[in-house]
Write a structure and sequence with these properties.
Elements: H1 2-27, H2 32-60, H3 68-96, H4 103-121, H5 134-139, H6 141-161, H7 170-187, H8 198-220
Length: about 220
C-alpha cells in the first residue's frame, strides 16, 4: 500500500511541476523572469524523476535495497539539479525585485552551489550503496542549507518590502522544504520512518512552482 500511494503522489508531483514549467516556458515570451521560472520547474521535475522513478520501481517490485545503484545515481543527479534549482531561484529574485547591487550575494550563492556539487562528486558519498555514508550526507548538505537560508532571507525581505502578494510566502515554502528535508538527512539512518517527511517536502516544492504559475498568470492576465 505504501508503494502504491507514494508512487501515485510522486507521479502527480512530477507531472504537475513539469507541466507547469512547460506551460510557463511556452507562454513567457520576453519575460525573462518567467522563462527562468519555467526552466527551473522543468529542472526540478526532471531531476527528481531520476530518483523518484527508480524508487517507485523498487517499492513496487524487488525493494529499495535491490535497486541501490539506480537509486544512488538518481540521488546524485537530484542533489545537483536541486542545487541548480536554487541558483535559478536566486536569479529570479534579482529580476523580480530589480536588484542591481548586492553582487556579493552572487559570489556567495555560486560558491556554495559549487562547493555543494563538488562535495556530491566525492566517492566517499557511497552513492551506489544502500546504506550510504551518513557523515558525507551531512557534509554535502551544509553548503546546501546555507544556500537555502540566504534565499529565504532574500525573498522574505524583498517580498515584504515590495508588498509582493504572489510571492509573499515564497520564503515560507522554502523554509518548509528545508524543515522537512533536514530531519531526513540527520535521522533517516537510525529512524527510517522519518523518511515520510519527504512527502510534505515535495508538496512545499509544488507550492513554490504554483506561486510562480499564479504570479505569471496574473501578470499576463491569462485565464488558463
Amino acid at each position: 500500500m505504501q508503494g502504491i500511494m507514494e508512487t501515485i503522489l510522486d507521479f502527480f508531483y512530477l507531472g504537475t511541476v513539469i507541466t507547469i514549467g512547460i506551460f510557463i516556458l511556452k507562454h513567457s515570451g520576453n519575460k525573462v523572469q518567467y522563462r527562468l521560472f519555467g526552466f527551473m520547474a522543468i529542472i526540478l521535475g526532471c531531476g527528481d524523476a531520476f530518483h523518484l522513478i527508480p524508487r517507485a520501481y523498487g517499492l513496487l517490485t524487488t525493494g529499495l535495497e535491490a535497486n541501490a545503484v539506480a537509486l544512488g545515481i538518481g540521488k546524485l543527479i537530484t542533489s545537483i539539479t536541486m542545487t541548480v534549482f536554487y541558483v535559478i531561484l536566486y536569479h529570479i529574485w534579482r529580476l523580480r525585485y530589480d536588484i542591481k547591487k548586492y553582487s556579493s550575494f552572487t559570489y556567495v550563492i555560486y560558491s556554495l552551489a559549487i562547493l555543494r556539487i563538488v562535495l556530491c562528486m566525492f566517492p566517499q558519498n557511497q552513492w551506489l550503496l544502500h546504506n550510504a555514508s551518513y557523515e558525507w550526507g551531512i557534509y554535502r548538505n551544509i553548503p546546501f542549507a546555507l544556500l537555502g537560508l540566504i534565499i529565504i532571507y532574500l525573498f522574505y525581505k524583498e517580498a515584504k518590502k515590495h508588498n509582493d502578494k504572489e510571492f509573499r510566502f515564497m520564503w515560507l515554502a522554502i523554509v518548509l522544504s528545508f524543515g522537512f528535508y533536514i530531519p531526513v538527512v540527520l535521522l533517516s539512518n537510525t529512524l527510517p520512518v522519518i523518511g515520510i517527511l519527504m512527502i510534505p517536502k515535495t508538496l512545499a516544492y509544488v507550492w513554490i512552482v504554483l506561486m510562480g504559475y499564479y504570479g505569471f498568470k496574473k501578470e499576463l492576465k491569462l485565464k488558463i
